[in-house]
Structure formats: structure tokens, C-alpha cells
Amino acid sequence: MKSKQVFVCQECGAQFAKWQGRCTACGAWNSVIEEIAPATSAGGRLTAASDNAPQPIARVSLEEFSRIATGMAELDLVLGGGLVPGSLSLLGGEPGIGKSTILLQLALAVSKSFGRVLYVSGEESAPQVRMRAERLGALSDDLWLLTENNLELILQQAERQSCRLLIVDSIQTVFLPELAAAPGSVSQVRQCGNELLKLAKERGVAVILVGHVTKEGNLAGPRVLEHMVDTVLYFEGDRLANLRLLRSIKNRFGSTNEIGVFEMTEHGLTALGDPSAVFLTHREKQVAGAAVGCVLQGARPVLLEIQALTSPTSFGNARRLASGLDYNRLLIILAVLEKKVGLNLGNQDVYVNVTGGLRVDDPAVDLAVAAAVASAYFDRALPHDLVAVGEIGLTGELRPIGQPEQRFRESARMGFGNVVTAGRPNVRAAAEKCGLKLYGADDLRLALSLMGLL
């Protein structure tokens, strides 16, 4: 048995024989750090005896696949119906955003309904966690707390307690003594993740890891950790505001398009089951530069408000700024408005924002963005009960939207009576069924004319 020194990039995990200032794999500077590789045996093929044998896929039993309800409807929605026994999940988010809060609430609900939960804290002391649990009302005889950083001891306690759920807060603080690297290094995070994955698959324990984020907002640690886990969740929001969004970046057991909406209160996180009411701005007077659209987040339609501001530029090149919307998509919409509609935006700074902090990638929001920009450009407000839905092509045409009935039903529920979109027969039938007045348009110029902007 012998060990050797290697140089490992702390951003991507690439290994090098000697130190270098820039990682040639990911391009990061000053990220290559010297570590001691784990000892390996000299030569020989590893052999292992196992009772596990291949079987026809039709005979694979799904009896152990029953999900564990978390007690929070929004969290279950993002997970695809609840936690899966034997799954490994990674939860990331900025410091102070509420990761420990939502996990304590989750641990309480699971311990009351499904059995013992082991909560491992590597960053806080037991009294600190107890104080938070008292504030959240998360005290249960089946919720066990362990403050430990040694992963070997954590795994021993997890097997001894026969827990249904294991929460490790956080993966960057635990370590394996056999590795000489410091906690949080690439080799420690990768190997600790492997050991926890082995525990989850062999014992059928649902494991949730908390991950730190970098200053760029990405999950810290090697990318192999994200590939290793079954689910990657990201908790986001403004720490100075009460709204929190939970989205799934990766999910082997469900959709990655769903979002969970929560409100942070003094008693913990409260699920908000009506996102449209959260993202819509209710004002008594209509203002120029605001338009309402409808996007699909997974299977759920969400109404949101697009705000735009145009202002004469003071410099040679006009600025374009997008918040919650793809920047390149905004440039395409502005180019179509200039070329096909005739708006002179070359000397205008354009700012577009999706209210509520939601990030949108549904192309059906294109028409609402164009309407908001045109409304700001002409300083003319749109009708208060109008919803604009449609994808804009490069030639200025409006493309049909998907699942129109779900979008129209949500629009009618929120009190909107008119909708502007591409007037296809199925779209007209859906609007009539939902009691909406449809203004069909084949291109962007006609759509803006129907809205009273041209």
C-alpha cells in the first residue's frame, strides 16, 4: 500500500502531476491545491462476491419505491411526489436563505409519519439547533440530532438508529479520517458523497445533503457530486424579503420544471399554493410598461407580470438589461420590434424585469415581453384584464402555445377576461370553454394593434 501527492482543482476535480496556476480543464485560476491521494494496492484486479444477479426488467419489484410525503405540498411537488427511499438529494442555496429551516420542518413531518429521522449538523452546536427547532415547533421523539463531522461515526449512527431519513448539514463540513485532505476539498466531498450514496442504496435510507454555494451562485464542490446524486434542489430568494423559491435542477424521479413557492415567517416556511397571486402585482391604476403573461412551470400554469422601462440613452450604445428572462431572448424580441413593427429602440435603454424573482424560460412569455416594451415605449397602459401569451418568431409571426386550456383556465380564475394570442381553432375553442374573449393575431404587429398600442 502506498500513497502519493497529487494536485487537484477545487473547482472541477481535475488532477495534475504538478502544481500550475490555471486549471487546463475548467480554466479556473489559483484553484489547483496539493492533496494526498488515498492509498491503493499494487496491481491486481479487484474481485468481490455478491448475491446480486441480473434479472428481467419486468420482474423488478416496485414495492420499496413508495414515496415519503414531506408534509409540505410545494416541496412534494418539486420532488415529484415526495422523497424516494434510497435516494440521495442535494440542497443548495445562499447562506441564511432558509435551508436548515426547511429541512427541520421536513424532518419533523417525516418523523411523525414514517419513523426515525437523524439530523446531522456539522456547522452548529446541539443547543443552536434545539433553539431553532423550538421556534419551528419541530420537537419530536423520533427526530434525533447528532453534531458530528467524522463521516465514519455518522454512518455508524445512521445504521444503528435504523433511520428512514438522514440529513447532513452540510457535505462541506464532514470528512473521512483516511483522507489527508481538509474538509470541503474535492477529494473529501467526492469520497464522502460516495459513502453516503452507498448507504442510501444499500439500506434504503433517503439521504439529503446540504451544499454550499460559490460567490458566483453555483453549488460548491466538484461537479461529480451533482452527477452522483439523484436530485439537485436549489433554494433561492431575497434574504431581505419573505418570498422563497425552491426549484429542481436535476430530478431522476420527477420533472425539473416545477417550482415551490414559500413564505418565510417567524414560525418557519409556509407553502404558498397559489403562485399567480404572489407574482401578480395588484394595483388600482394601470401604468405603462406592464403586461401580464402566463407561463407553465411543469404542469402548473402561473400568471406573472412583465415590467419594462425604456429611456433615451446617454451614451453611444444603448443598454439592455434583463432580470428573470434570458438576455439573448430579449435581444431577439427587441430586434423583431424594430424590424417588423417599426419601433426605434436603437437609441433607447431597455430594462425588462419579471416580478417576484421568478426565472422564466417558457417561450410563451415572448408576447408579454414585447407588449411591456411597446407599452413603455409609447407610454400607454394596457387594459387591466388582458393576458398576452405567444411565442414570437424571427419573421414576426406568433406561434401557437402549448396547453392553452390550462393557461386560460388560470387566467379566468384570476379575473382576466381577454387574451391575445395566435388564433388557432383549438385555441379559440379553449378560450370559449374558459369564458375568455380571444383576440387572435397571426403576427406581432396585429397583436400590438389589438392591444391598443399601435
From TrEMBL:
GO cellular component, one term: cytosol
Superkingdom of the organism of origin: Bacteria
Molecular functions (GO terms): ATP binding; ATP-dependent DNA damage sensor activity; damaged DNA binding; hydrolase activity; zinc ion binding
GO BP annotations, alphabetical order: recombinational repair
Extent of motif RadA KNRFG motif: 250-254
Keyword list, A-Z: ATP-binding, DNA damage, DNA repair, DNA-binding, Hydrolase, Metal-binding, Nucleotide-binding, Stress response, Zinc, Zinc-finger
Domain RecA family profile residues, every copy: 64-213
Purpose of the protein: Plays a role in repairing double-strand DNA breaks, probably involving stabilizing or processing branched DNA or blocked replication forks.
Record PANTHER family: DNA REPAIR PROTEIN RADA (PTHR32472), DNA REPAIR PROTEIN RADA-LIKE PROTEIN (PTHR32472:SF10)
Protein name: DNA repair protein RadA
Species annotation: Candidatus Avidehalobacter gallistercoris
Lineage, broadest ranks: Bacteria, Bacillati, Bacillota, Clostridia, Eubacteriales
